[in-house]
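pipeline: protein-struct stage 2 | run 1193 | FCD domain-containing protein
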Amino acid sequence: MLAAMTPALSPADEPRRKRNSLGTPITRAQTLFLSLLKHIIELGWPEGLPLGSEQDLMKIHGSSRTTVRGAIHLLEHHSIVRVQRGTGGSVIVARPDLNATMQGVGVYLEYAGIAPRDILATRRALELAVLHLAMERLDQEGEQRLRDQVQAEAQLDGSAGADALLRFHFLLAELCGDPALRLFDGIVLQLADAHSTFHRRSRPERDRVVARIKAYHREIACAIIARDKDQARGHMTEYIAGIRTWLE
């Protein structure tokens, strides 16, 4: 799986030695990239930890400057490390940017021609999975965060932006405690917003829609806190079905 992250380079780069899981040839720089990534994962992804300078990595791995620089470039590209420049500079373990990752996958799905029906079906499946896990893993702090979110939405009207209207769903994805579900649900939420006609509708229409959204969020939150799976699932299913008329 890790090897599939390495893009194919041109013949002018370095001699090709191996192939990744997709059958694409990879270079020495890509091989070192995978080795460094595996090392970071085994360490528990210690954000802020210096891995050493370019010179240090050349000595440790017995690699050329070209190979090390290529590996560092790949690590930076994936937001795995950041490079501290200047005298005594070092390659430092970073925290990957979740929003950038979601945006990147979203761009690919747009390129692949994802349709509104696909977005709607995928969102339904993911949001119901998120709902199920969030309810199972909900604690008192999570309950309070749901109450606070519903309360924060009380003043929203048709002028609200996408961030404000989607915050409830991003919170559920966070509360479910599954990083993969949180990532994929976030991607679909962003795609749904990108394909929504909400902000092109009249203000009275938007006011009515926001009022319904707030009501559904309250009902879903109450059902989750009450651990009423049938009610929570029913409200979420109705909510997502209602989005169909707003997607293009």
